[in-house]
Each structure stands twice: as structure tokens, then as C-alpha cells.
Amino acid sequence: MSRTVVSSIVVIGAGPAGLAATRAAADTGADVTLIDAAPKLGGQYHRQDARTGDERFALPAGVQHLRESVVWAIEPIDGGHRAHVRTGPADSPDRTGTSIDAAALVLATGAYDRALPFPGWDLPGVFTAGAAQALAKGQGVAVGSRVLVAGTGPFLLPVASSLVGVGAEVVAILEANAAVRGWLSNPFGALAGAGKAGELAAYAATLVRHRIPYRARRAVIEAHGADRVEAVTTARLDADWSPLPGSEKTMEVDAVAVGFGFTPQLELAVSARCELRDGFVVVDAAQATSVPGVFAAGELTGIGGATLSAAEGAVAGAAAARHVGAEVRPPLQAMRRIRSGRRFAAALGEAYPVRPGWRTWLRDDTLVCRCEEVDYAALRGARNDRDATGSRSLKLVSRAGLGLCQGRVCGANVAELSGIDDPAAFAGRPMAVPLRLCELAGADPEATPEIEPGVKV
Amino acid sequence: MRVRVDGEVCEAEEGQTVAGVLLAAGRNSWRSTRRGGRPRGVFCGIGVCFDCLVVVNGVPDVRACQRRVEPDDEIRTQHGAELPS
Ligand SMILES: Cc1cc2nc3c(=O)[nH]c(=O)nc-3n(C[C@H](O)[C@@H](O)[C@H](O)COP(=O)(O)OP(=O)(O)OC[C@H]3O[C@@H](n4cnc5c(N)ncnc54)[C@H](O)[C@@H]3O)c2cc1C
Ligand code: FES
């Protein structure tokens, strides 16, 4: 059905974490295969313009890079793990299958935006903040011409800045939490993480230059329009995020970019049976997961930004190399950067949490699951009338989380709305990515994907 | 390169995704939902949400934000759950 390849180390994900892991492992002389769903390297933070032919990153000699390749399952084998891969144009039935046997795996699959529901969030024109960012950076296209950026956390700043860069007017940035004192005026203050200060100062300057208002304690609580967003209602929030009556304002916009932090992309870690805690993969000081031979790095283990992800990647790559018998010097510098990065991440998490008042933004007919079009009333009905309380029974009775995205978008929200105290309750999926039936049946050609040798640095 | 979008010829560049082409052409929805028949387009932008589904060369359920365009691609709106044609 598909070809089997052997590589001593397989790194999944080519963002800051996966790239650093690949380099660290390859530097020891170990043989490394790097797999990523995208055509180019870099992941989210270093997303490249997909329309230019050049590749900004060079890989150490000998590294095999499998581009446009998704890993859809991981299975244990004697002495390691087997990664099942499909290579080719996204969602095409003509992709080719490969399985790669590895003695050590580094999972670096990153995260995606957490989006909170509000009436009208299913209208075209409502995007996640990450979507606005990815389309601006990767495709040079603005999600709208008058865009409101809203949610919580420092990520809203680069998003606004990129939108301006592709010609959009950003009407405002709404931060649902209180502004951290001195955050914008003094990016060197309490929350300045390693290497972040200059970057934040540049975003702050963009806001000033383009006169983009930055409003704290305010959120979008409704989007209006028949078939696309035409306007939004925003409201001032109390400390719990309940809207303050009388504070509502309407703004005309043709797009909204909303982001409330990030959710880790856990499916492969779940597939490999790694232990999770509070919705993240548990790792030790060497980035080893609970499963021998499986290492994890980057946003999968906690949300802390690109610098921390890269440091974790460097440690994970070295540890994976040691696991396969390479001689490795302890990556002391990266370990130090991880410690300071985690302090920054903890401060960030405390300053920009998601507060429970968002649940009051919903109405009965607000969708909670976008795929299966399950509204809030139906979810409550499943829980109250039919006594579905666990995540499995709740899914089956309400259908929330049963659609194509397999609960990635609604999982954390449905868990919170239903009083399930585990943000990853919906993370267990039979397959990491949906495949076409013909692909599962193995009706694909036996062709081998092109494995490109890394470019010498 | 040229592609066709709902029958009309549209200019596209190498490296653009289907979503990139459609958004640049001023469209922000190209699918209707199975139950409510509601319009949808890009939401997450990175292949996670499956909101951006579109029919490419007769194959439905292709994520527009992930699929790179190729010359002469036939791209069309997806209505609810479709079978491959
Ligand atoms: C859409 C988006 C845009 C962002 N933009 C920025 C930004 O501009 N600035 C900023 O400071 N932070 C940004 N972030 C935050 C981001 O999480 C960074 O902190 C950083 O990129 C995290 O690094 P990482 O290596 O952990 O993961 P990522 O950079 O997310 O890399 C993960 C990689 O894994 C690949 N992958 C995942 N699953 C599979 C699979 N099953 N098979 C194959 N490949 C897979 C993905 O294609 C991706 O390239 C963004 C986040 C998102 C979701
Ligand atoms: S927009 Fe989410 S999968 Fe394409």
C-alpha cells in the first residue's frame, strides 16, 4: 500500500521548534527527516511568502525534508515509532503514502488560535487573528479593507501590523483584558521576554504611525450582516468579561480578526499516547514525553512564543540524538533560555487569560460547533435534558465536535460551557487529519514522494 | 497562470492558495453549510477548521487555505455535502 522508509530521527513540524530540533540533531551527525504539511519551512512565526520561489531557511547537509506532507497517525513498533505520511497537494486523492520508521520522534506541531463564539461569528468576514496573519504573510492578501482586530494577548499587535502592511485599514485593536501597565509605552517592562523588546517596540510604533486605537477591556460581542460581516457591536467588559450594559458601540467593518490565545495541535501526541496535563504535552528537562523515544517541543508543551519554541526544539533535537546513540554535548545555553522563556510564558498567561464572562455573549441560536451547526440551546439541551455530561456522550447526543474539524475549534469552548474541567477532553481523534476513503483503502499509486536532501549551510 | 472560478477565468500566481486567489478576487465565501445552507469561507487560515471547503477539479472537500492552485484548475463553490463528480 505504501512505501516504508527508515530514518533514525523524525521531526514533525518545521516551525521554530522543529527547525531548531532538526539542526541540533543533525549537528551530531544523526540522520534526520523533517516533515511538514507546508511547501516551505518556517511554521507560523517564520511563515514565508508562498508566492516567491526562494526558500529562506537552509537545512544542514543530509537532512531529508518531506514538504507538503502530513503525518496522519503514529504507531509504536519495535525499537521506535512509525509515522504514516501522505505527500502531495492538500486534500488531493492522488497523494502518495509513505511510512517512516524512526528510533526517535520529535513532535513540533505547534498551535492554532482559540476562537470564542459570539452571535454572528459564523458570518464570512469573521476570521481568526492567525488567519489574518497567515494570509497577509503567506499570500500578501488582506482579509478585508476595514478590519477590527480583537481578542487578547500580544499576538494582536503583529496581526494589526501585518494587516496594515498589506493595505488594510485597522479600525482598532480591542484587548479584552486590562492593558498591562507600560506594555506598549515600555516594551522593556515586566512582560518583555528574551528577544521580544525590539519586536514589540516596532509594533507599537506602527500603531502610533497609523493612529490605530488600542482599547483595553473591550470585545466584539456580536457581528452583523446578512451573508457577510457589515458591522460589529463591541462592548466594554467587566473584570470577568461580562459586557457592561450601556457600553455598546457599533462599528462598520468588512472583516474582524479575533484571537484569544492558542490551543496546542495535540493529535499526534495523543496518537503516540503521550501524557497530557492541563491540555499540554508533559515533558521533562530534556523535552522527553512520557513515551520513551518521543520528544516534544514548541507550543505543544505550553504557549510561550517563538523564542521559547526554538530553545525547546534545540534541547529536544539533542535529546533525540542522544536517544539514538549520538554523542551529544548538553545544550546548556538552550536550557537556560527555556527557563527564562517559561517565566515569560507564565507571566503572559497570567496577564492574558480567557475569563468566564465570554459565556454571557452567547444567545440560544449562537453556534457553538461551526461544523455540525450546533447552537448553544442544543448543547444545553443535550447536557440538561439528556444528561450527557462526559465529553463522549455530549458529542454523541449534541453532535458538537463530531464534524470535519473533529472538535479542534469548538472543543475547549464546549468543555468550558459544559463544565468539563479538561481543555483537551475533545483532543482524542482516530486520525490526526481526515483522509479520503480511497486513501485509507490504499487505492493510491505506489509512487514514492520526492525526498529532498537538505541544502548545505 | 489561469484558473476558472465558478466558470469564470481568473488570473492566479504560482504559490497562491485557492483561498488566496478567491480573497484577492474580493470573495469571502465559497461554500454553503449542510444544514443551514449558510455561506462560509476562510476562518482559521491554517488547515484546522475545515470551513473553507471548495470543489477543485471535481473533488469536493478541498481546504482552500491549504491547496495551492495549479494551471487550469477548475474551482467551484461547494453546496452542502457533495459527492465527487
Ligand atoms: C496562524 C498563526 C500565525 C501565527 N503568527 C505568529 C506571528 O506572526 N508572530 C508570533 O510571534 N507568533 C505567531 N504565532 C504563534 C506561534 O504559535 C508561534 O509562537 C510559533 O510559530 C510556534 O512555534 P512552533 O514551532 O511550536 O509551531 P508552528 O510554528 O506552529 O509550527 C508547527 C508546524 O507543524 C506543522 N504540522 C502540524 N501538524 C502536522 C502534521 N500532522 N503533519 C505535518 N506537519 C504538521 C505545521 O504545518 C507547522 O508548520 C502564530 C500562530 C498561528 C496559529
Ligand atoms: S480556513 Fe480553516 S481549514 Fe481552511
UniProtKB/TrEMBL annotation, chain A:
PANTHER family: ANAEROBIC GLYCEROL-3-PHOSPHATE DEHYDROGENASE SUBUNIT B. InterPro entries: BFD-like_2Fe2S-bd_dom_sf (IPR041854), FAD/NAD-bd_sf (IPR036188), FAD/NAD-binding_dom (IPR023753), Metab_Enz_Cyan_OpOx_G3PDH (IPR051691), Opine_Oxase_asu/HCN_bsu (IPR017224). The keyword Oxidoreductase applies. It holds the Pfam family Pyr_redox_2. Keywords: Oxidoreductase. This is FAD-dependent oxidoreductase. Transmembrane segments: none annotated. Residues 8-303 form the FAD/NAD(P)-binding domain. Gene3D superfamilies: BFD-like [2Fe-2S]-binding domain (1.10.10.1100), FAD/NAD(P)-binding domain (3.50.50.60). It comes from the Bacteria. One of its GO terms (molecular function) is oxidoreductase activity.
From TrEMBL, chain B:
Keywords: Oxidoreductase. It comes from the Bacteria. GO terms for molecular function: iron-sulfur cluster binding; oxidoreductase activity. InterPro entries: 2Fe-2S-bd_N, 2Fe-2S_ferredoxin-like_sf. Pfam families: Fer2_4. This is (2Fe-2S)-binding protein.
